[in-house]
């Protein structure tokens, strides 16, 4: 019998208790031993919950109980989640988490602490919710040098963009609807401004390239500037607009960014709609593989947390295959101004002015009422894109995947 | 240093040597020790290969060398691959394979032998080529009771169907093209008649439901009966025709089948084109997750074989999480005649005759030159579908996903 504690009994925390209860037999068989939820740490009480008697308000009770060998941290936010995780690892307790904020900022230190104390720190649920993407990268694609990753990593923004595309809803209405359905937080800033996706890109850099990139150093543009006109224009040109977290490595230098992108319909990410997430990984042997599924939600996210628990318990601690990375240093990062990709521009200039700038090289050209839309034939750098913006009257511009 | 042997130096076997060579540093780091290819077993010689000096023609050399602790079987076919695998496992050598024929027919016995001898038998590459799907099921989705799986499991047939849809190519021309491009074998029977997909469904039943279903007991229809008219009609109705391997479990009874199906465009499998594979798994906690990527090919398949090798070497044998199943017995299988799904019919009857049979319940109805196409509003059993075929003059019928 393994005794564990849950830190934070919110959406994911209570989902974790539900998965462990509903699939108890299956999990017990897979682990080779029963898992008991001995404590649940939360500021609140839950008198109506079947777990009411496990609720404690003092973290020290958990930390000081030698019977507790495993802790699932689902509190969210950096503090005190980080401090509690550190204390647990130092006390020889393995920790699993869905907390992307903690992993993206303190992951390297926490993995080292786990290693030093002979325990595990796993965080499958921190990227892609219930989709098995992280372990797939460090176990199943271990025979590959990962070249790039592109992901739809945030369900809220994907719901909003899908809604704008499918039903012509405005950004504000789509956001309100997402909040009503419980997809978006009351304060949706971290979602719509791209910070949530940037944290996940940071973690993906850790697993794909061995370097955890600080989320603050990832150039990030959210979707607040996307208009109905952009969405409509993209559809006419044969693209879907998606908030894409991108990372690649070339000559040992990592480029990571988050921005809305026009995704061609031939790319499988273009079909990832609503609150679903999709992560497309390119390895030097396997080529492109994509993982698709529910990127958030109570039970899907909890399903990934419990998979980590099973991995640790069935591996008896020491045998688990562990993620590993170090913090990226400035020299690991490519100069962003030379990052090149195909671009979309919508300008209010005349067709002849547009042709004068792009030549006859534009891949797609669409003229509308007072505007010309262009998809460039070749990738251009950030610097070159800025130059275009000086020469033409740009109404909108976006990267193309 | 780990010494291994490759059995069969064909497409996948030589790919395996290439992956181990090209990504040597990475793999060594991941494993914690170097992997040496000590022997390659093949009937042929490869004087121009950098591995020419490792080629042996006598299996006993490998079997009797105590230094060889791991064998990668990529010979294809049941015999002597099965006998060689058995001998290796009994001699305390772990075996990894891409051979779906052996796994689907003898997997249970071989897993037991591995267990008894304290070694591993892994076969990630046997389903979905380079896509990490099997380990994802038994590790990442271990917290889920798997309810169903639907997969595009054969690249050749998917290439043919994509070609018929995109370019209006006939079945025969598309097949010839697939053979020219090296996707289809000279004898494409196992592909186009669905046997290859049935073998993969058998293995998926083992991992999803713990019961390896004998491929011969899986009702299997290939794509040889699909006409250009079917493909065209499907597109008009908003569907894509795909060869779908399906398995589900209800009340402890497994239904498994392989047949062409009309897949609605809202289902992510509909977008899986060309030689790509996609596997959609439904778990009781996570819901739907899909794995997508190259389902065949030299390096992608080899990438999965090498992932199994890394898993075994880095886990030092004993610690690897292992797949586990037993053979299904007749009582494990549901009565196929009561398997129900939505159906498509194209009939040469009049609209009034069609309405008399289906009532006003048909979900989609399309009338063309001398025919009426119908998608039923509700699932119907195989028995009920047979009854429709007696009442109407059915030109074509297909299951809908």
In short:
The structure is a homodimer of 401-residue chains. By secondary structure, chain A is of the alpha/beta class.
Describe this structure in words.
- The structure is a homodimer of 401-residue chains.
- In chain A, strands 12-11-7-9-10-19-15-17-16 form a nine-stranded mixed sheet, sandwiched between helices. Chain A has a six-stranded parallel sheet with strand order 3-2-1-4-5-6, sandwiched between helices.
- The first copy, chain A, has 14 helices and 19 strands.
- In chain A, 36% of the residues lie in helices and 26% in strands.
- Chain A is of the alpha/beta class and 401 residues long.
- The longest helix of chain A is centred in the first third of the chain and has 17 residues, at 100-116.
- The mean pLDDT of chain A is 94.
- The first copy, chain A, starts with a strand and ends with a strand.
- The interface between A and B is large, with 52 and 51 residues.
Largest sheet of chain A: 9 strands, mixed
Low-confidence stretches of chain A: none
Oligomer: homodimer
Q: Could you tell me the mean pLDDT of chain A? A: 94
Number of distinct beta strands of chain A:
19
Report the sheet-strand fraction of chain A.
25-35%
Q: What's the arrangement of strands in the largest beta sheet of chain A?
A: 12-11-7-9-10-19-15-17-16
User: Percent range for helical residues of chain A?
Assistant: 25-40%
Rg value of chain A: 23 Å
Q: Biggest interface between protein chains, with counts per chain? A: A-B, 52 and 51 residues
Distance between the termini of chain A: 49 Å
Tertiary shape of chain A: elongated
């Amino acid at each position: 019998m393994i005794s564990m504690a849950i830190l934070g009994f919110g959406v994911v925390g209570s989902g974790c208790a539900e998965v462990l209860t509903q699939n108890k037999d299956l999990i017990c068989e897979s682990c080779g031993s029963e898992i008991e939820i001995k404590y649940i740490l939360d500021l609140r009480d839950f008198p109506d919950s079947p777990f009411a008697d496990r609720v404690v308000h003092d973290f020290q009770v958990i930390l000081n109980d030698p019977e507790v060998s495993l802790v699932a941290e689902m509190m969210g936010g950096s503090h005190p989640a980080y401090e509690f995780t550190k204390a647990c690892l130092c006390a020889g307790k393995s920790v699993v988490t869905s907390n992307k904020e903690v992993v993206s900022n303190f992951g390297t230190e926490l993995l080292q602490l786990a290693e030093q104390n002979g325990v595990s720190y796993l965080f499958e649920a921190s990227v892609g919710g219930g989709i098995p993407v992280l372990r797939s990268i460090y176990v199943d694609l271990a025979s590959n040098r990962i070249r790039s990753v592109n992901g739809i990593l945030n369900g809220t923004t994907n719901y909003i963009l899908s809604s704008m595309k499918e039903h012509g809803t405005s950004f504000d209405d789509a956001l309100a609807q997402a909040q009503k359905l419980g997809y978006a937080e009351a304060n949706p800033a971290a979602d719509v401004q791209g910070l949530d996706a940037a944290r996940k890109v940071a973690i993906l850099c850790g697993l794909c390239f061995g370097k955890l990139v600080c989320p603050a150093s990832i150039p990030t543009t959210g979707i607040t500037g996307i208009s109905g006109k952009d969405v409509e224009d993209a559809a006419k040109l044969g693209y879907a607009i998606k908030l894409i977290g991108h990372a690649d490595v070339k000559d040992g230098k990592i480029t990571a960014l988050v921005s809305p992108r026009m995704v061609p319909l031939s790319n499988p990410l273009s079909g990832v709609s609503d609150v679903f997430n999709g992560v497309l990984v390119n390895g030097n042997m396997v080529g492109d593989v994509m993982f698709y599924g529910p990127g958030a939600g109570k039970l899907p996210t909890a399903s990934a947390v419990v998979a980590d628990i099973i991995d640790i318990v069935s591996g008896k601690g020491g045998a688990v295959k562990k993620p590993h990375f170090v913090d990226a240093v400035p020299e690991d990062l490519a100069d962003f101004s030379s990052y090149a990709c195909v671009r979309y521009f919508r300008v209010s200039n005349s067709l002849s002015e547009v042709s004068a700038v792009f030549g006859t090289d534009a891949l797609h050209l669409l003229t509308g009422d007072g505007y010309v839309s262009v998809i460039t034939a070749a990738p251009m750098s950030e610097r070159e894109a800025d130059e275009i913006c000086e020469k033409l009257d740009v109404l909108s511009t976006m990267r193309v995947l």
